Amino acid sequence: MTYHSDLILTPFQVDDLPEDITALCDPFQESYSCAEQQAVQSLTISHKENLSLIGSQINGLDLQIAPLQSRREKLLSKQDQELKNIEVLKSILSPIRRVLVDLLWEIFLLCLPTTPTDVKKITYDAPLLLCQVCSKWRRTALAFPPLWKSLDLKAAFHREIAYIPKTVLSVHPSIPHILDSWFARAGRCPLSLGFDLVYSYDHKRLISSLEGVLKELPNSHLQRLSLKIEYPCDAYFLAVISREFTELESISLKVSKGLDARAIPRRLFQSAPRLCSADLRGFIRPTGVENLLPWSQLTHLRVETEFDVDTWYYLISHCTNLQHGIFSMNNRLASIPTVDYEINLPHLIDLTLHITSGAARVPNVHRLNFPTLRRLQWLFDERSLNYVEEGYIPATCNGSLENLAIAGNMAFTESQLISLLNSSFSITKLHFSVAINYTNFFEALTSSSFTHQLLPKLKILHCDIRSIEDVDAFLESLISFLRSRCYDGLNSQTNWTTARLRRLTLTFPDNVDTDNKGFKDRIKVFPWFWIIVLNAITVQVCAR
Fold first, then answer.
1. Smallest Cα–Cα separation from 316: which of 281, 289, 283, 288?
2. Across 227-236, 295-304, 488-497, 509-518, which has the greatest mean pLDDT?
3. Which of 117, 192, 370, 397 has minimal Cβ neighbours within 10 Å of its Cβ?
4. What is the SS3 assignment for 202?
């Protein structure tokens, strides 16, 4: 009896077999004898026994591996724990943890924004971000009252509670609770609160939602209050806050739209004995300013709105303790008042007057007495002023004025220029950005008499030159001026009646090279560099 095998063995399958099996594997043999079949069966039984023995050995090894595997897993777990321990120890010595708390507080203060944050980005306010760095920073921030002394809220906060981030809300459901929680962290620090109440929807809803906020205003230790409001809907808000503020020092009132004078409360902050600074933008109109604020208390006043010169005279005469003032005025509909008495401001140090585009003339200031004025700025919008009256600079400040800046589209005659310079001999820094003949200007500075030198203390000069009629004459007058205001080791300062010029900046319009061909190249190679080198004077020549 013969059997045909269905298995076709390839050479690769035969090569790795034992010899007793290889002898029976003939790929060309189609049938096997009975003896051969018995041999195959015997070999099969033998190899099955070998397989069983190998399986037993594997099971024995598995029994040995199991405890080792368990031990290995325990060691891996201990390894992970040790790595964590090392990381914790490293973190203890990390730079962020080694910073002293006092120094960390100073860093936190530098992180506070200088301007109100946008409502959409309130979650990125510095106090909240600092609390999210690490547990130490959170504890440090929450325990540092000055970090929480300032808060700015916008109308959107009152309009919809969803605009307030959850990190601020915590468990508090409304704005009054947020104010209470925020300022509670500030302790007894002087507080700063800002409201942006420019609201384009129903103002009655806004007023209703603000009632709870107004009840929570920390009047007793509020130091700064900033309001951006919209008339007439916010007159109620202004009336409510016109109560006692024992610690209030600074206010900022800004109006976004046209002012309705009838909506202005007649008396604001009359019970604020420490109020000394006011910033009014679009807030004042000619009527009703007498008792609007306690003017005599103010040391800093900024008024950015177009009011007439009568109102300016009233304000300047009633701000008897003013030290720093910035005013915009439009006197096109008013005549210059006749002042028969001197207005004395003995503490005024810094004054800026912005003459707007509708102004017809510069106010006469010959009756103003500013004995301590150090810095004066006149700014003009457009060329509507063709002349300057006498008394352009208060004569009584000629011994204290150090910094003078005049900028705008305005023209001077030569006599007016000389008169201006004669009344301000103490100036050390001068900025001119007006339409004057700078050739005559430099000649006047150079050729003034020995006994009455113009600007003898001048050290810094900045000139925005509008046009040049004669380039050669201009350059000659400029180099003469530099020679007269510079000295070196051979010419000691004691031999000079004027101060040494330290810095000169000249700016020219872009078309100066078109009107005066090759001007820029000529001014670069003009022989004044020996003056710069010998006397270490800084000269800048640039286009604008």
1. 289
2. 295-304
3. 117
4. coil
